[in-house]
Design brief:
The chain is 33% helix and 26% strand. It is α/β, with parallel strands linked by helices and 388 residues long. It has 2 domains: 290 residues, Rossmann fold; 77 residues, OB fold (Dihydrolipoamide Acetyltransferase, E2P) (Beta Barrel). The strands form 2 sheets. Strands 1, 2, 3, 4, 5, 6, 7 and 8 form an 8-stranded mixed beta sheet that branches. Strands 9, 10, 11, 12, 13 and 14 form a 6-stranded mixed beta sheet that branches. Strand 10 and strand 11 form a beta hairpin. Helix 1 crosses helix 6. The longest helix is centred in the N-terminal third of the chain and has 22 residues. The two termini are 16 Å apart.
Amino acid sequence: MDLFPPLTPEVRRTLEELLRLIDQVFPLPRRFRVTLPRDVAELSRLLTRSRGERHNSYLSTKGLLSAYLRYFLPWNSYRLCRLLPGLPLHFAAGDVIIDLGSGPLTLALALWIGRPDLRQLPLEFHCLDRSTPVLDAGERLFHALVGATPWIIKPIHASLGAPIYGPQARLVSALHVFNERFEGIPHADTRALQQAADKTSRLLSSLVSASGSILVLEPGVPWSGAWITALRSALLTRGQRPYTPCPHQGHCPYQARTPKWCHFTFDTEDAPSALHTLSTAAGLPKERAALSFLLTGPVGKEPELPQGEEKTLPVRILSDRFPVPYRSKKREAAQTRYGRYGCSARGLVLVLEQEPRNRNKSGKLVMCTLRGPEKRDPKTGALLADIP
């Protein structure tokens, strides 16, 4: 089971169409097109290394808004189109989706592109963002892409925490929102981080229906992993179980393991070529994408793990593979296996695989085997498990 299946040909064509529509709906004068790579690089700096220099209305600046629409919106849409089809998101006619920090309707665009099965289902999106220009741009782009649709878009020009009237949502999403609010908290300050997560969990839980889900996604950096772990803990106390990526509802094994953090990476070779071209021109080539995320839903009974001499353990792969040298009992010469770190109900796992093919990539859920007495990695304390 793979969290990030490659794009289907239809989804890839629609993403490429999105790039063409951005140019069509928001035509760029030549002088701005020449400076576009520089504007993308500047916006990236403001969103990462120099957040303190960024004012609240930064996307009202024409060059920065253009950079956001042509670079960050397509890349964020691409990431979501790789993720959304693999998530257990199920909707019925009339369901409400609340998207906090919606930006240019990134979630609505990615759901329409990445989940073609939902296009004829009447859904209602409440999209909240404090930036009027970026919400308006998203509405124009959405309607240009989808045309006539049973989906209803209701923009809400307000800051996070403002009241959202109407029924509770089948899905509450917050994508790339909380890193802007709380990233000043050191991820080692677990008390302050947990307090912020508790406050956020109250907000998210107040908006979701009894049978609904919450989706939070952040950049794949250490602070985001620590934040996701703290929020996961807070949401569990409010009856929201981690559906995915966690293969269990217990304590997060990454909570106390610095510098490791929960995140996933995947190759971007199937992203639109024009997007790669712009990224390279801006000095931001993106051969791989990284993210940390959490999807929760109503708490249910967790399945019991099989017992016996040989046990099977579900493990979510988190890391790339690396060589693990060892000495075989049958041979005196050193041998090489491959290892990956993963998450399980038994805590952190070092998954060992014999074959050289790179099949069990980051995000995949694999069934591992525990044979005989428990063994631990002396370096990390991770449980050792084999893939049959």
